[in-house]
Amino acid sequence: MTTLKLIAVGNSTGVVLPKELLARLRVEKGDSLFAVETPEGIELTAYDPEFARQMDVAEEIMREDRDVLKKLGS
């Protein structure tokens, strides 16, 4: 468990993430993190769930229309 400190950032509030946590999340200054509500609580992740959903849809379309895509690629 890691305790995170809240700090004032202008008129907002920020969270200080220790470098060890940043390394585990594989992010650095300027990257985006996503706060995802789960049944267990709030999950902080570098994984973009909306992008993943879009990729799942794209993969499904590619599987269904494989022959059409193959002809377009020729």
From TrEMBL:
Transmembrane stretches, start-end: none
Ranges for domain SpoVT-AbrB: 7-50
Pfam families to which the protein is assigned, alphabetical: MazE_antitoxin (PF04014)
Gene Ontology molecular function terms on file: DNA binding
Protein name from the UniProt record: Putative addiction module antidote
Species per Swiss-Prot/TrEMBL record: Magnetofaba australis IT-1
Lineage summary: Bacteria, Pseudomonadati, Pseudomonadota, Magnetococcia, Magnetococcales
